[in-house]
Amino acid sequence: MRGTFGVALVSLAVTAGSAWAQGHPMYVVHQEYVKPSMVQQYEGTQKEFVAMITKNKAAMPHFSFAALVSDDFVYTYVAPVPNYAGMDAITQDFGALAQKEGAGFADLMKRGGAPTELVRESVVSFWPELSYSPAAPRLRFEDARYFHYDIYHVMPGRDGDAEALAREFVALFKSKNLPNGYRLFKAEMGPELPGMVVEVAAKDPADYYTQQVADRTALGAEGQALFAKAFALTRRFETRSAWLRPDLSVMPAK
User: Fold this and answer.
1) Which of 3.20.20.70, 3.30.70.100, 3.10.450.50, 3.30.1330.60 is the CATH number of 127-242?
2) Cβ atoms of residues 71 and 84 within 8 Å
3) Are the beta carbons of 139 and 203 closer than 8 angstroms?
4) Backbone angles phi, psi at 214, to 5 degrees
């Protein structure tokens, strides 16, 4: 989550234009695929990076991110961005940090980049109206430490159908009054478009799979039919799970 992130913000700002007009919260998603043999070195430099930002927070008032780590050594950093001006402001924050830290910043970027095999960036938007938030949630989102993601790579030209189906899912979950919620994100910029990502929060893997069995049972045949329709609109399907890592994050002020 180091030097390339500032560059990514610039390139994404140029190309990810339409989503901001829709008024949905936006996030830059920056992923670093780390060499398994160098995880310890990587995390060490990431903690140095967090400490450097914390020390210079006055020079980086617009920049915060949550770090999530999956079992296959993919480190995902999610940073909120309000609009184009907000992205420019973060880029300026990086410049201010580099100027204040000088050679120390350059050295950290070099050491932090060595363990990284691949970097991917994307922009996603959060759609509350396509998400399900229970009236009495079983688990508060802020108490979750484990997150599961279903990634639907939607067939080109079927975006509208996928959104309509997402609304059917919300209606079904509400009708069953299920205690487990989920959040839906749309891919606005990245290597594969169109796409939707469904995020489910849990305490740990066992908690996630237990609640999934309960939900699927409660949804019954109606749920099976909707999932069949979802897969009919999907050209490729992926899943990913990750743990929240506060020690590698710079969380926004509450």
Assistant:
1) 3.30.70.100
2) no
3) yes
4) -65, -45
pTM comes to 0.87
Q: Is the pLDDT of residue 83 over 80?
A: no
Residue 72, judged by CB atoms within 10 A of its CB (0-12, 13-18, 19+), counts as: exposed
Q: What is the pLDDT of residues 154-213, one digit of tens each?
A: 999 999 999 999 999 999 999 999 999 999 999 988 888 899 999 999 999 999 999 999
Helices (H) and strands (E) in the chain, counts: 6, 8
Domain residue spans of the chain: 3-125, 127-242
Burial class (CB in 10 A: 0-12, 13-18, 19+), 68: buried
Note the CATH number of domain 3-125. 3.30.70.100
What is the DSSP secondary-structure string of 235-246? EEEEEEEEEE-G
How does DSSP classify residue 217? Answer: H
E strands, the chain, are: 26-34, 66-69, 74-81, 116-126, 146-154, 183-189, 195-202, 234-244
Residues above pLDDT 70, as percent of the chain:
89
Which among 92, 98, 103 is positioned nearest to 61, based on CA atoms? Answer: 92
Q: Is 152 exposed, middle or buried (0-12, 13-18, 19+ CB in 10 A)?
A: buried
In sequence order, the 6+-apart residues with CB closer than 8 A to the CB of 234 are 152, 153, 154, 155
pLDDT at 18: 44
In 3-state terms, the chain is what percent helix, strand and coil (to 5)? 50, 30, 25
171: CB partners within 8 A, 6+ apart? none
Check residue 34 and give its pLDDT: 96
